[in-house]
Amino acid sequence: MQKTIIAVILMAAVTYIPRVLPMIFVKERLKSRFLRSFLYYVPFAALGAMTFPAILYSTGDMASAVIGMAVALILALFERGLLEVAVGSIVTVYLIQLFVH
Amino acid sequence: MKSAIVSRSDNAYSHQLDDFSYGLKQGIPIALGYIPVSFTFGLMAVSGGIPGWIAILISLTNLTSAGQFAGTSLIISGKSLLEITLTTFVINIRYILMSLSLSQRIAPETSLLERCIMSFGITDETFAVASLERRDISFAYMLGLIFCPYLGWALGTAMGSAICSVLPAGIQNSMGIALYAMFIALIVPSSKKSGANMIIALVAIAISSLFTWAPFLKQISAGWSIIIATIAACFIGAILFPREDL
Q1: B213 in the same domain as B103
Q2: CA distances, B105 to each of B17, B26, B32, B129, B164 (Å)
Q3: What pLDDT is attached to residue A21?
Q4: Who among B89, B115, B184 is closest to A51 (CB)?
């Protein structure tokens, strides 16, 4: 529990620092196109790396995870909201595990 | 001279009130959009074994989606403090871009303390709305803009945490996929719009797969593999698809 609270404080700090530092110190536009492009791609790369392959091990059995992932991909392709995509894949996994066991 | 100063500050006060209520109005749709997302966060955190009050504390102190989702999932899977902190930081590096961009637009009279307070509320959505404003961004406006989204984010988390504890165990098990499904919902629409975004996400996925399954490389822990994959993919992206429009 103590470790969790320390983790939360550290997370808050590393979320706040990138928000506040440029606001305090930088009054000019970043010159480096490379750096600006690098920063632009961070969310896509980070989300991709965090999702796969970790998603395959998120439900206890890979079969339900793969089908749950497929459902999430299809719903996301049709640009459904976050909650809808999440609930869609949860229900899919739940039904598959119910059916198999 | 003295009376001129007084009337100027009176005027400034009513300006501030106008700016605040204008921002407040703009923040309401953002707050409504946040509730289902933070609801899912509360659900995910508590189903992973995190107490509800900690989930709410995370939302109140972090106020970000991807970063706190990732950090929380690493807490749940028992990763080290260094991995949790570094991963959260790498995901939040994008705020440097947004804060940089907003810093060019802040009203010149904004004090250092005001800058420190308003930058706490920079999120993808508040940034998008604020950066579309034609006028200078004042402290009062930003405070108004942040107000409802901040409350909505905390409220949704509290509701999600409360609901989770009354759900049957079978549902709670299948909720392990919720976080990743949300990540997919975040990546796919932007990948549809830009091929470069999709390629960068796929490169990151390929690298993290390598670190999961390839012999020798798989000894590296999940937290580190995410950081290495992210940095490598962004490096490749910045070389192959440099952005002119940022």
Answers
A1: no
A2: 20, 18, 26, 13, 42
A3: 94
A4: B184
- Are B74 and B223 a contacting pair, CB within 8 Å? yes
DSSP conformation class of B133: -
- In this structure, is residue B180 part of a structural domain? no
Is pLDDT at B78 greater than 80 in this prediction?
yes
Q: Which residues pair with B106 in a beta bridge?
A: B137
Residue ranges making up the domain that contains B220: 194-246
Nearest to B175 among A54, A88, A90 (CB): A90
Q: Which of residues 20-79 of A touch B (CB under 8 A)?
A: 20-24, 26-30, 33-55, 58-60, 64-65, 68-69, 72-73, 75-77, 79
Q: Does residue B186 belong to any structural domain of this protein? A: no
Does pLDDT of B4 surpass 60? Answer: no
Note whether residue B115 is domain-resident.
Answer: yes
Q: What is the pLDDT of residues A19-52, one digit of tens each?
A: 999 998 876 666 788 988 887 887 788 789 888 9
Tens-place pLDDT, residues A82-98: 778 888 998 999 999 99
| Domain boundaries, position A48 | 2-100
Same structural domain for residues B149 and B78?
yes
Point out the domain boundary residue: B174, B203, B220. B174
Give the nearest chain A residue to B233 (CA atoms). Answer: A45
Residues B36 and B142 sit within 8 Å (Cβ to Cβ)? no
CB A71 within 8 A of CB A55: no
Does position B166 have pLDDT exceeding 80, yes or no? no
Residue B51 φ/ψ, nearest 5 degrees: -60, 150
**Total structural domains within chain A:** 1
Q: How many domains does chain B have?
A: 2
B163 and B198 assigned to the same domain: no
B112/A24 Cβ within 8 A:
yes
Nearest to B76 by CA among B106, B43, B125, B105: B43
- Domain shared by B60 and B166, yes or no: yes
Query: Would B189 be classed as within a structural domain?
Result: no
